[in-house]
Structures are given as C-alpha cells and as structure tokens.
Amino acid sequence: YEIEAVTGVQTCALPIWHSPPRHQGCVCLNPWFITGIIDAEGTFTWGLTKSNSAKLGWKIGPRFSICLHKRDYDLLRSIKSFFGGIGVLKVTGDFAYYDINSIRDLRILFAHLDLFPLLTFKRNMYHIFVTVYWLYVDKVHLTPQGFKLCLAYINLLNRPIKAGTIRAIVALHGSLPTIILPPVLITTQYLLNPYWIVGFVCGEGSFTYFCRSRLTSSGVKLDYTLVFEVSQLPLDNLLLLAILQYLGAGNLFTRQDFVSRIRVTSTVNLLNLVAPFFILYPLSGHKGYNSLPD
User: What is the pTM of this model?
Assistant: First the structure.
C-alpha cells in the first residue's frame, strides 16, 4: 500500500547540534554521520566456533562490522580514523569491511553510541550484543549455565545460530534457557540530526531514475524520471516518515517483500528540497558522486 507523507515546505523545528571534539586524525566526519551509517550498514554479531582447547568445547567472540562496496574503502578508512585507528579494514570480493573484534576496542564504540544512539530497530540488536559483551567480560560464559545463557541471547541476533550447532551443544550441555526480553520502546517522535540523515543515506539511499516507454504517433518515446529513495524494514516506517518530514517532500511505500521505501520523484521537490539539503550536508563516499547536481 502507499502512505502519503508530508509534501511542500519543511514544517518540523529541529535543534542545532554541536559536535564534540573529534578523535585525532579525523577531520571530516560528524559523529551523527557515524551513527547514521551504522544504523544503515552496521552489524552486531557474536561468532561461535568449536575449539578443542576450550573447557566447554566452544568459543564465542564479538564482531562489529560495517560493510560497504569496495569503492567506498576510503570512507571506511575515515570511519576507522574517527574511532582513533582501532579495528581492521579488509576487502573480500566486491565488498569492503571495517571490523572491531577486540573486547577493549569495543568500549570506544559503546562510548560513541551512548552519546549518539542508534535510531533504527537495530538498537535492539545492539542492546543484546552489549548484554552478551558484559557476560563475557565477567567470564560468565566460562560456566555451562553462563555459556548457554550467552548462546540464548546470541540466537536472538540477526544471524541465529545454525540448528545443527544448537543440537550439538544441547546434547553436551542441555537445553538453552528461555530469554524474555524487556518491552521494546517504540519511538513516535524523532528529532533528526541532518548528519545522521546523510550517514543513513550513504548506506540505504539511492539516486537513480525510472525509464518508461510510451507509443506516440512518431514511434516509441522514452520518459526518464529522476528518483531519490531510501529503503528500510517496515519496523522503521515512523523513522522513514520523519526523514520525509525533515526533507519536506516524498511518499512512503511499503511492499509485500517486507521492504519500505521513501521516494521523491517530483522534479520540483528534487531541485528545491532534496538537492539543497545534500549541498548543505554533502554525502561522503561514492554515493556523493551519484547525488543530484546543484
């Protein structure tokens, strides 16, 4: 179905945000941009590997990762610099990754997200990730019961543990405990920072066009329509609507493939609302080359 969003002039009053001092070595990225791109392309996972040296036969380890196309390797390098050089960069196939796996270094990431919190539903995955982190730091995972508690939380993350692995662990140590998570706080009002929007668009946005053909008396004619859109899971429809309200134009579309998209196709709105926003708050990385011209 289609949900009509706000069109015309911008109506929401937004506060002016002041950035704290950046980490040495980073001169370009706003901290809200960092949170925005994590909301778009960041993942919080715990790896589980079989180990003969581990007392319980298995080891767990954390991984935070931002994945972008390899053409945005320099952007990932800037993000690494923002965090003071912690973590590692790697390229696999067409994709580049910025990973933080160190227990000590993850605290730097946590400190950032405490000050500039995630806005998408991903914040719930982050809270589970942090819960397991502190169980790990307190060495709870070294006992059979604590290990199963960690696994029960890990199994709730974006990438559940494989069924065969769960069966093997249950055969050795017994069933995993049932986890009852606290109620999820649903935000209905967002005070968006423009740099968060830019970071989020760098991950989930696209600048493209539609091409339609029509038959005329002189033959087939092609009509081109410029399109700006941002995609996200329907769980974040209210957040997508807040982006539309900030920009002052567009519509929200929710399709049966469980993906929602905000889309601006009006040439007037693209030139008078969307383009000026990205001129004032430029995109970083390769997507900046695809954005609308001034």
Answer: 0.85
